[in-house]
Amino acid sequence: MPRFLAGLLAAGGLVWSTGAWAVEISISCSSLGKEYEICKQGVDAWAKKTGNTVKIVSTPNSATERLALYQQLLAAGASDVDVFQIDVVWTGLLGSHLQDLTAKVQGAIDDHLPTMVETSRVGGKLMAMPWFADAGLLYYRQDLLDKYKRPVPQTWSDLTETARLVQEGERKEGRGDFWGFVWQGRAYEGLTTNAVEWVSSYNGGAIVDEKGEITIDNPKAAEALKAAAGWVGTITPEGVLNYTEEESRGVFQAGNALFMRNWPYAWALAQGADSTIKDKVGIAPLPKGGQDGRHAGTLGGQLLAVSKYSKNTDTAADLVMYLTGPEEQKRRGIQGSFNPTIVSLYGDNDIARANPFIGDLVDVFTNAVARPATVTGDNYNKVSTEFFNTVHQVLSKRAEPAQALSRLDRDLKRIKRSGW
Questions:
Q1: CB 9 within 8 Å of CB 312
Q2: Which residues form the signal peptide (predicted)?
Q3: Which is deepest, 106, 118, 119, 401, by most CB within 10 Å?
Q4: Over pLDDT 70: what percentage of the chain?
């Protein structure tokens, strides 16, 4: 084949391979924890099966930075990425740039968790496929709870008391860098997920309710933020104000914390052969805000979507269907602790052996707290940014909870006037 012609076709995503036309597809994969490695294994298997090739585009670990990158690419109509890994709260934000997959999936979507399917739709159209489910969880050191004869905490006050007791005890034994509780406190989307859990656990409602009413300025929400601010510098390091998932996991997995709030992905890493806390970790629902509170884990998870600017949308959709299918979701569940979105896999014995807690998570996901992405639509990112910046001010002692939430209420009303 003439070299100039091959170059033109390659620019359109076509590659001449072993006497036949193959397509090159690009996919964005997170590099959080094991995500990049597990993603690469999946796309390599699809490439081998189909004869196509796949290029993985690395993205920032910070969800906020990743969203900004996606918005920049899609706003420019760029075809650099065919398949996007997106957060469950981004479907509405990015939906106008995504391919409708309704005709591609047919009845397969009915096999997935309803809560995850709901996050994949925009205006009744299926703009993404559920890939793995997430909800915030409490990780704890079972060996240390046994050592100090303490139960798994059921309320935040229980957690605070136990964290102080164990932290003091471990430091008396010479572990000056030991902390009671680590979580995600940087001013980014991860702080929104943490703070939504705190507020909901105290029955402080959502930031914005299902009817679009702003509800965050209330005494229960202020009480929740006051409790969280009290952890910083006492049972939680000051540095938590710049922690994302990986910083908090690093402290916990190094054996330097009793409790950690994180997503399910951290389980496989904590149980890794090189982990200092292997076989010493337990998982539980996040604590309640009090005896009359509730266990509240924020609904998370990731979807796969096809860019409508892709030059090979059919092949890209085929890759999405493979990666979100039962065989690949089972493999990811076993090797990476990625929780399936296919309901039947929660009864799979192989997944259960790799993740003993998996059977309990169907209820966690079913009852998980959703961020107000659907009701606020295109304005969700603005709403979340105002929220996590406000919370960060409270945590860093630059604002009192009640006054900060009053200002947040005013700022959210300003955003609402532009329509949601």
A1: no
A2: 1-22
A3: 119
A4: 95
